[in-house]
Design goal:
Layout (H helix, E strand, L loop, with lengths): L20 E3 L8 E8 L12 E10 L5 E9 L4 E9 L5 E6 L12 E3 L7 E2 L5 E8 L10 E7 L3 E7 L11 E3 L4 E4 L8 E9 L5 E9 L2 E7 L11 E5 L3 E2 L5 E8 L10 E7 L3 E7 L12 E10 L5 E8 L9 E6 L5 E6 L12 E2 L9 E3 L5 E8 L9 E7 L4 E7 L11 E5 L3 E2 L5 E8 L9 E6 L5 E6 L3 E3 L5 E3 L2 E4 L18 E7 L5 E7 L13 E4 L12
Parallel strand pairs: 2-41
Antiparallel strand pairs: 1-41, 2-40, 3-4, 4-5, 5-6, 7-9, 8-9, 9-10, 10-11, 12-14, 13-14, 14-15, 15-16, 17-19, 18-19, 19-20, 20-21, 22-23, 23-24, 24-25, 26-28, 27-28, 28-29, 29-30, 31-33, 32-33, 33-34, 34-35, 36-37, 38-39, 39-40
Length: 559
């Protein structure tokens, strides 16, 4: 298939020509602004003339409000196309970073990129784009050398950071990097650190190890590997690693399994680990350890899920076993206290704050992908409820823990009145995202006599002061081109990775929330909604300002 060639020109979206439009802004109240970054069904940024942007996915936003995304392009006349990564240049334009079927710099001729939907980009605050990609070509052998990680900077272009088959000197002579599995992330401090999960092996003896890697100035460094001793468990070694997550400070949190003297399978053979450049590897929680704030003899069962923040604190979701524990009381969620120690936030079968007497938390693990923590240790999570007053109309809520106040508060529950939408109720809740400023955003489905399938989706935001904002609702007018205000038929929330890792998610620390909007004819728009700081106003902002200026105008442009 012919490759989609680039052009050196800047790209200006059709939305860039629109004037700002204000819809019923409430005097004295804060408002949410919507900035349309790019729309589909127009000329693709930086691609050859006639190459149309047909799809948007894997979008991420940084703290400067800049965006990177994976896009699909096609020339309907020539019947060619593919997928690629787009990022911001220093002047404020979207530019193509890498395309399918494009030659890969510094590799043999006819070696080309291959992308699919798992290869989403990452973006740091300096505007550097990091991405994983597959490779094809006559010299490519799967999986020996068919995957890699690249970084793109506007001032220097593409740089290969790691590729399957690259030597791993820190592991010893003859060791090479295996297939890159995922877990790709990077901090947003501009220091250039990149972290990923993968394997390496001795090419002679074929002795392979799983590893968590850091890429820095010294090259590819396997900081944690299978075969490594387990701290605090004499004679035990790690036998299996999950991909883990990395905080903004570059610390790894991950689950691992191990073997050794006194280690019993399914009893005490796993745990939640932490690694940092300063303190090395530590075993934070081990299966079989006593579970704090539970009955005597109750212990953690298996390796739970750890959710770290930039300060080294974490939330922990796990199952427990022991006397008196049954299927109705065996899941727990912990978070950091004011002093940093773990505090029991919620337990299955225990009273749920903010609900009627007799209502308790149901299985907390059912919302395991919906736990988020910010730099101050505030933990937000989704949980299901059980009790005599519970039905399908009110059985899920979102809570937030504030360690500074030692308070766990119910923010919203299914069945609640929908803020800013009189007569409507919240029927279904989605997972929240949260930033270090204290903003929390989530999507929901509405119910009400005037609600239709074209108006039942909504996104809300709650700031650190507790003020609510309606960000966007299906049916709202959004500019898809000059003079082209269209009702939003649907939107994609969590368009990129659902994570609080900076540069890898949908909500920046400055309140920019990333959405993909869809119109009735299939045209998509990449939208950044800016949530105002609490100091700008209080209460629910009833109005929405739609800003469709140049895609790079405003505070997101690097100076």
């Amino acid at each position: 298939m012919p490759r989609p060639l680039r052009t050196p020109c800047r790209f200006v979206t059709s939305a860039a020509l629109l004037a700002a439009t204000t819809l019923a802004a409430a005097p004295g109240r804060a408002f949410v602004s919507l900035d349309v970054k790019v729309v589909t069904r127009v000329q693709a940024p930086g691609a050859a003339p006639g190459m149309i942007l047909t799809g948007i996915g894997g979008a991420v936003v940084n703290d400067a409000g800049e965006v990177a995304f994976q896009g699909w392009v096609e020339d309907p006349t020539l019947e060619i196309g593919g997928s690629g990564i787009f990022g911001p240049d220093a002047s404020g334009a979207f530019v193509p970073v890498a395309f399918d079927f494009e030659p890969v710099p510094d590799l043999p001729p006819d070696t080309e990129f291959r992308f699919n939907q798992t290869y989403f980009p990452r973006l740091d605050d300096a505007g550097s784009v990091v991405f994983q990609a597959g490779l094809s070509g006559p010299d490519i052998s799967h999986p020996a050398n068919s995957s890699g990680i690249w970084r793109w900077r506007a001032e220097s272009g593409l740089e290969r950071l790691a590729r399957a088959g690259d030597p791993v000197p820190a592991a010893g002579p003859g060791f090479a990097l295996g297939q890159i599995q995922g877990g790709l992330t990077l901090p947003t401090n501009g220091a250039g650190g990149v972290h990923f999960a993968g394997t390496y092996a001795d090419s002679v003896q074929q002795i392979g190890e799983m590893a968590l890697f850091d890429i820095g100035a010294s090259g590819i460094d396997p900081v944690v590997t299978t075969g490594m001793p387990v701290p605090g468990v004499p004679g035990a070694v790690i036998t299996y690693l999950d991909t883990g997550v990395v905080s903004e400070s570059g610390d790894w949190s991950f689950a691992a399994w191990f073997q050794g003297p006194g280690v019993v399978t399914d009893l005490n053979d796993s745990g939640s680990f932490h690694w940092s450049a300063d303190s090395g590897l530590s075993l934070r929680i081990r299966a079989g350890d006593p579970a704090p704030a539970t009955e005597p003899g109750v212990a953690f069962a298996g390796a739970g899920g750890a959710y770290p923040n930039a300060a080294g604190r974490f939330a922990y979701l796990s199952r427990i076993v022991g006397p008196g524990v049954d299927e109705a009381s065996d899941s727990v969620l912990y978070g950091p206290g004011a002093a940093g120690s773990l505090v029991l936030l919620a337990r299955e079968g225990r009273s749920a704050p903010g609900t009627e007497p007799g209502t308790v938390f149901d299985d907390l693990r059912s919302g395991g992908s919906c736990v988020v923590i910010d730099a101050q240790g505030r933990v937000a999570f989704v949980a299901a409820l059980a009790g005599t007053a519970i039905s399908e109309a009110n059985d899920v809520g979102i809570w937030r823990w504030d360690p500074a106040r030692s308070a766990l508060e119910l923010l919203v529950r299914e069945g609640d009145p929908a803020p800013a939408l009189p007569g409507d109720t919240v029927a279904t809740l989605g997972c929240p995202v949260q930033n270090d400023r204290g903003d929390l955003a989530f999507d929901a489905v509405l119910a009400g006599s005037d609600v239709t399938s074209g108006t039942d989706g909504v996104v809300y935001a709650i700031d650190a002061a507790g003020s609510w904002q309606k960000v966007l609702r299906e049916g709202d007018l959004v500019p898809f081109g000059p003079g082209d205000l269209r009702p939003l038929e649907a939107f994609g929330f969590h368009a990129g990775a659902v994570t609080d890792i900076p540069g890898a998610g949908a909500l920046s620390n400055n309140g920019q929330l990333l959405l993909v909007g869809y119109s009735a004819d299939g045209t998509n728009a990449l939208v950044v909604a800016t949530i105002p700081e609490p100091a700008f106003g209080s209460g629910l902002g009833a109005g929405v300002v739609l800003l469709a200026a140049l895609a790079r105008n405003g505070p997101g442009v690097r100076r």
